[in-house]
Amino acid sequence: ITAANLKPTQRVEIFCSYAIPRSFYTAVNNSSNQTCLRNADSLIRSKMVARCKAKRAFKLYHSDDKLVAKVARAVITPGKFGKLWRAGGGSSQSLLVVQEDLTNVESVSYRGPECWRAEEFRKWSRKNPQGFGVCLYEKDKISNAWLRRVERAKWRESQFICAIQMRCNMLPTLELRFGPRGRIPLCRACGVTSETGSHIMGSCRETKLNRMERHNKLCSLLAQEGAKKKWEVFCERRVTKMDCSWAVPDLIFVRKDTLLVVDITV
Question: Among residues 111, 139, 160, which one ends one of the domains?
Answer without folding.
Answer: 111
